[in-house]
Inverse folding.
């Protein structure tokens, strides 16, 4: 099923020595403290940890939404440091896919239009076919429905499909199962695992949900801005 | 325009509501502009149609009521005619009178006294030109009031009678009443209050209201030098509108209403697009995270606002033009001109787009991360 180039020619996410301090002046919060993390193409990594430990901050930095105070970040071989805003936008559009907990679908668009949207933002090299991809995530029968007519789990599937339609090198997923019951959570996370492995995407998923970790290749724990391996 | 169209149709309830407001503002702008042009015409169309370049009034006269207060000697016209660049100058009389025709039609009239056969003497498009005492040429619009060639017009109190010999083309008004042209000598007698048959003192024929001066539009005429030589105060034809009764008060009131309407529509339209865009804050943050450029977001928002604004103001202006055509055929002072309507429409569209663009800029400056609130 995979149509991507062999994994050896692609690199996923390489983060080394990244620190991020929120706020300025007296009230500063160290969200990330010398974090290093490498995720290869086709690898599914989970990050767990208490609230406020810096998990979302890590995703923001990895996705070029926040600039780290130190350290280097490479996505698909491209160094984010010193990139202009325009190039960063371009990189997000072509190399990075985001899946947020909720509200990440555009209310006005049907499921299939959500997947067509990334291609209207600019040129996309060899995108996946929106209908086929919807089929793959089991949402083809809801292609003409808008988000308000979809269940939480269905929305999350469409969101995942939309993040994957541009064949990104890196997929960043923030608590995809927070609003779902146990069996839906397993469906969504196993879908993520399948796509990660099948299309050589480097996937980082933040979760509070211990149940779904079985689908992941590697689990890290974030505590007060520092990251360490929990299990392989 | 993938997203813009879909969002317009998705939130059509809200956009239709706003579209109606914009259409109503457009309608109001058209009606107001028609009313203000109509009022100007009703006030000074008789002056606008004069072949006059400037008027020389009595020295130091109050400029807001010059036509009713000024008295100049008729010989002043000769001094003015000799000025460099001036083609010709002739005395002009202007007074407001109440009249009644032999068919019992009451007419308030602005009586313009001119030397018959002079360049100031009007051409009748219906009937004959002024050719002597006892004749009057009146505004064409009086035909609608039942006045016809051959009717007799009598001045109240004094009793001077004129025969209507001709009609001018269309509307000729001054101070919201119709204009009638009579020969200068008779006008001078009426102004002096001399009844028909009474002896006329010689000095009655010495004075007129002003001297009408004619010169080429691009002739370099030194009005100040002329005023000095003739001991007069000059106003160009346009400036003299302000000397017509009520003109300044009416036009400044209407202008103020129009300025307020523009300001209100700018606020309403600007505020609407600001609110709509701020409501899209989360969505715009998602689009930014997906790699939408600021240019894309601006284009998307501006397309939406342009479609809404152009569509609904076109509807409003169209309704305004239809209503205006209906009003124009009524006695209400109303006249539509293309330029003010076009300016009002363009202004409405541009103000709305500025509001939308400002809102988008404010949101794209927000960090997409904070807008997403990490996880919501
Ligand atoms: N924009 C910001 N400005 C200031 N401080 C921030 C900002 N964003 C996050 N923080 C702080 O940085 C720390 C890490 O936040 P982050 O959102 O990364 O935590 P998290 O691990 O994702 O938590 P949760 O599990 O609750 O989502 C927290 O202490 C938070 O208060
Ligand atoms: Mg978080």
């Amino acid at each position: 099923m995979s149509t991507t180039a062999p994994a050896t020619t692609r690199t996923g996410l390489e983060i080394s020595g990244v620190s991020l301090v929120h706020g300025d002046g007296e009230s500063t919060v160290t969200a990330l403290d010398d974090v290093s993390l490498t995720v290869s193409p086709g690898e599914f990594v989970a990050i767990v940890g208490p609230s406020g430990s810096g998990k979302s901050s890590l995703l923001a930095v990895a996705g070029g939404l926040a600039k780290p105070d130190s350290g280097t970040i490479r996505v698909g071989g491209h160094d984010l440091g010193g990139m202009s805003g325009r190039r960063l936008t371009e990189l997000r559009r072509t190399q990075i896919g985001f899946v947020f907990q909720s509200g990440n679908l555009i209310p006005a668009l049907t499921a299939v239009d959500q997947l067509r949207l990334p291609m209207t933002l600019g040129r996309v090299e060899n995108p996946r076919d929106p209908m086929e991809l919807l089929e793959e995530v089991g949402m083809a029968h809801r292609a003409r429905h808008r988000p308000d007519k979809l269940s939480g789990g269905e929305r999350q599937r469409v969101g995942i499909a939309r993040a994957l339609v541009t064949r990104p090198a890196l997929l960043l997923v923030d608590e995809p199962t927070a609003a779902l019951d146990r069996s839906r959570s397993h469906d969504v996370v196993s879908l993520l695992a399948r796509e990660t492995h099948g299309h050589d995407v480097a996937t980082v998923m933040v979760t509070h949900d211990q149940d779904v970790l079985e689908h992941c290749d590697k689990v890290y724990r974030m505590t007060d801005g520092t990251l360490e391996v929990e299990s392989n | 325009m993938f997203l813009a169209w879909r969002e317009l149709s998705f939130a059509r309830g809200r956009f239709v509501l706003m579209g109606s407001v914009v259409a109503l503002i457009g309608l109001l702008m058209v009606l107001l502009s028609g009313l203000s042009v109509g009022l100007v015409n009703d006030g000074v169309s008789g002056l606008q149609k004069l072949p006059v370049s400037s008027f020389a009034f009595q020295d130091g006269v109050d400029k807001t009521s010059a036509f009713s207060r000024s008295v100049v000697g008729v010989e002043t016209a000769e001094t003015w005619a000799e000025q460099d660049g001036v083609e010709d100058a002739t005395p002009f009389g202007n007074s407001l009178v109440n009249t009644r025709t032999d068919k019992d039609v009451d007419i308030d009239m602005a009586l313009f006294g001119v030397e018959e056969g002079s360049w100031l003497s009007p051409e009748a498009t219906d009937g004959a030109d002024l050719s002597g005492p006892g004749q009057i040429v009146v505004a064409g619009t009086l035909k609608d009031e039942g006045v016809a060639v051959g009717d007799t017009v009598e001045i109240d109190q004094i009793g001077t009678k004129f025969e209507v010999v001709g009609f001018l083309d269309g509307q000729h008004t001054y101070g919201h009443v119709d204009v009638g042209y009579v020969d200068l000598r008779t006008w001078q007698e009426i102004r002096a209050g001399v009844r028909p048959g009474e002896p006329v003192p010689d000095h009655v024929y010495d004075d007129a209201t002003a001297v009408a001066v004619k010169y080429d539009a691009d002739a370099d005429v030194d009005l100040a030098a002329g005023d000095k030589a003739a001991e007069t105060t000059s106003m160009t034809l346009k400036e003299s509108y302000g000397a017509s009764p009520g003109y300044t008060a009416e036009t400044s009131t209407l202008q103020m209403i129009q300025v307020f309407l523009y300001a209100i529509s700018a606020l309403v339209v600007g505020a609407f697009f600001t609110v709509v865009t701020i409501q899209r804050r989360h969505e715009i943050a998602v689009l930014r995270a997906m790699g939408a450029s600021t240019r894309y977001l601006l284009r998307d928002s501006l397309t939406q606002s342009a479609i809404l604004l152009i569509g609904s103001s076109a509807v409003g202006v169209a309704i305004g033009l239809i209503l205006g055509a209906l009003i124009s055929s009524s006695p209400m002072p109303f006249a539509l001109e293309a330029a003010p309507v076009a300016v009002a429409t363009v202004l409405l569209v541009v103000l709305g787009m500025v509001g939308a663009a400002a809102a988008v800029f404010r949101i794209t400056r927000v960090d997409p991360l904070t807008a997403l609130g990490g996880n919501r």
Summary: The interface with chain B takes residues 56-57, 60, 63, 65-66, 86, 89-94, 96, 98, 100-104, 106-109, 113, 116-118, 120-122, 146, 162, 174-175, 178 of chain A (CB under 8 Å).
